[in-house]
Specification:
Subunit structure: Forms a membrane-associated complex with FtsE.
Pfam families: FtsX, FtsX_ECD
Order of helices and strands: HHEHHEHEHEHHHHH
Number of strands: 4
Family: Belongs to the ABC-4 integral membrane protein family. FtsX subfamily.
Protein name: Cell division protein FtsX
Strand order of the largest sheet: 2-3-1-4
Structural class: alpha+beta
Membrane topology: Multi-pass membrane protein
Number of helices: 11
Shape: rod-shaped
Length: about 300
């Protein structure tokens, strides 16, 4: 097969269907950008989970004098020193517990004043109204229910709370955004495939005389189909390259500059450039293969050779 002939045929096909080729490039770029964005969103959720789940604690709030009159779980009165020490001892015996920190009511009050000192309610809160607690660091944060089952309802315990629940709302929202991006990506992918197939059909129809002559002189089916497949692959490659540009620009302007989310949201552990760059080869490969396969399937049906 002469490469010069194939390249010339590719140029002819692209010039004849310039508008449709542009539409294919745009649709492929958008669908692959959404595909890459969905992959990056999944990595972001995973990174944040690994980062925050390693830092959150299980908090066992102990009864104080105020709880004794307001909470049914503290009907037996405030926690005693013996009860607290027994709870601490039982926690340290558990294999899933890494360490236990006792936060006194005075310490809880000081932390509350640091966080909410400017609010109206902070001015009427007193140290004796704050609950002392045990901050439990687990080796495996997923084993929260083991601690909750063992200590909820014990004398002196008002409640057992898993700080992961605070983060679940954020993670669920991010997963919902990711699902929406995947759905939109699939829609754009279908549109791109339809455009590719239609472009190949138009190109094959416009060159039916040339392909007929090539068949008469004994050209193989693969030889005749190759220029059409290469046209689709070339369009997909350009679309994939644009998708990579969109992904890199999105990371650059959203996180590092422009909106500068990395500085405005210091508590969020954003994925690094290594994760973004690792997805680009996959986007390029899909951008190259997807139109090629679609063109090959279309040619088997519409190009009679």
């Amino acid at each position: 097969m002469r490469a010069q002939f194939v390249l010339s045929e590719i140029g002819v096909g692209l010039r004849r269907n310039l508008t449709m080729t542009f539409a294919v490039i745009v649709s492929v770029a958008l669908s692959l950008a959404l595909f890459g964005g969905a992959l990056l969103m999944q990595e972001q959720v995973k990174t944040m989970k690994d980062y925050w789940y390693d830092k959150v604690n299980v908090s066992i709030f102990l009864c104080n004098k105020t709880d004794a009159s307001t909470s049914p779980k503290c009907s037996k009165g405030a926690v005693t020193t013996q009860q607290r020490e027994q709870i601490q001892a039982d926690l340290k015996k558990m294999d899933i517990v890494e360490n236990v920190i006792h936060e006194k009511a005075e310490e809880a009050f000081a932390h509350y004043k640091e966080q909410y000192g400017d609010t109206a309610i902070a001015s009427v809160i007193t140290p004796d109204q704050m609950q002392e607690s045990l901050r439990v660091k687990l080796k495996d944060p997923e084993k929260y229910k083991v601690v909750a089952t063992a200590f909820a309802g014990r004398d002196g315990v008002e409640s057992v709370q898993d700080q992961r629940s605070i983060l679940e709302t954020l993670f669920n929202m991010m997963r919902s955004v990711n699902y929406a991006a995947v759905a939109l990506m699939l829609l754009m992918l279908v549109i791109a495939l339809m455009l590719i197939i239609n472009t190949v059909r138009v190109s094959a129809f416009s060159r039916r005389r040339e392909t007929g002559i090539m068949r008469l002189v004994g050209a193989s089916s693969f030889y005749i189909q190759m220029p059409f497949i290469m046209e689709a692959a070339f369009s997909g490659l350009i679309g994939g390259a644009f998708a990579c540009v969109l992904l890199v620009a999105g990371r650059y302007f959203l996180v590092d500059h422009g909106l500068n989310l990395a500085e405005q949201m210091p508590l969020v552990n954003f994925i690094g450039w290594d994760v973004v760059l690792a997805q680009l080869p996959l986007v390029i490969v899909i951008g190259l293969l997807m139109p090629s396969v679609a063109a090959f399937i279309a040619l088997r049906k519409y190009l009679k050779v």
